[in-house]
């Protein structure tokens, strides 16, 4: 023990001597009056939130933007806090207090059919070994809302009939297993197979409790800006006029398939993500030029489709409804392109726009409970038109704010895209 103490004392003497020599040197910072301390890393406190926590992550972001007088409030929601968040929500639609949504598909374990081994299940099905019918139905219901899928639920039969934005119709059914757990089956009834598989993967992932699957990347730019195909675009210039003449021929064809194909082609040609800038600009102008057959055909289809959605209280003919949706989609794309190019003022002066089209668009906002996909594109058209001061005033006179408020309330509960588009347009029209 004595040898160890002596060794420690010698070691301390050596360290003091080296420290003194270092201070007497000319090394920068050597003559500091205080001793050098080891730098410690800075840590930030992190709190892991459980999904069942009362204070969601979005609410925490809102708390950071609250005035100092409210930041000292309890972490639990209070009337004063909710009022402040509501005021912030009016100024910015992205800041909202998440509502507790009631699941519209209230399935009980006793409602499901018992799945036998001989039952021919679709390949697009998945077994949930420890799943509860009520919980799984709630997950699927929320997934469909987030993906803006129109759904009709039958709780007694544990079925849901769904229609996606791309006019893909499919059915979801829950089955009880003899050995416990449940089976989720997604069955395509109509529509594009690739679009169906996107929805199917999202539904089955949600049923298992997984996160949302988003197959569509956001924030895509123009196709013409892609470096890999710039040379291809320069060497290949499609005959746009000839393509539009072909579209006019198909629009004049009474066959529904020809009309849908022509409208789908117009939708892509007015979409900056799917077509080059030249094509988008030319086609968008032609959509509202009454001297061309394209514009006249679109106005006729728009008027007939609007009458069908207003007069019929049920789902109506599917092809007629989807045709009307495509027309509104084309017009929404074209309005948006012309708005960005500051060419909307001349179109807004036309009587057909002021007297007929605006009234039809407002009527289509009101049918959102039956046809939410149609209302989405009608509101997008209104959003572009509202940038014109004269049209903005006309919309306020026609009580557009009350229509948009109804769309926000309904969309926030069942149709996410409708709720967001309506909220943004409501904010725009309120200014």
Report what the structure shows:
There is one protein chain. This protein has about 425 residues and is α+β, with helices and mostly antiparallel strands. Among the domains are: about 110-205, TATA-Binding Protein (2-Layer Sandwich); about 230-430, Leucine-rich Repeat Variant (Alpha Horseshoe), CATH 1.25.10. The chain is about 55% helix and about 10% strand. The chain contains 18 helices and six strands. Strands 1, 2, 3, 4, 5 and 6 form a six-stranded mixed beta sheet that branches. Strand 3 and strand 4 (about 160-165) form a beta hairpin. Helix 17 (about 400-415) packs antiparallel against helix 18 (about 415-430). It is globular and about 90 Å long. The chain starts with a helix and ends with a helix. The relative contact order is 0.06. Mean pLDDT is about 80; it is low at about 25-100.
What's the structural blueprint in terms of helices and strands?
Layout (H helix, E strand, L loop, with lengths): L1 H23 L32 H8 L3 H4 L7 H13 L21 E3 L9 E4 L4 H14 L3 E5 L4 E5 L5 E9 L4 E9 L2 H15 L22 H6 L4 H13 L3 H14 L7 H11 L5 H19 L6 H23 L3 H5 L2 H16 L5 H14 L3 H9 L2 H15 L1 H15 L1
Helix pairs in contact: 5-6, 8-9, 8-11, 9-12, 10-12, 11-12, 11-14, 12-15, 14-15, 15-18, 17-18
Which terms would index this structure?
TATA-Binding Protein; alpha+beta; 18 helices; Leucine-rich Repeat Variant; single chain; 431 residues; six-stranded mixed sheet; 6 strands; 8% strand
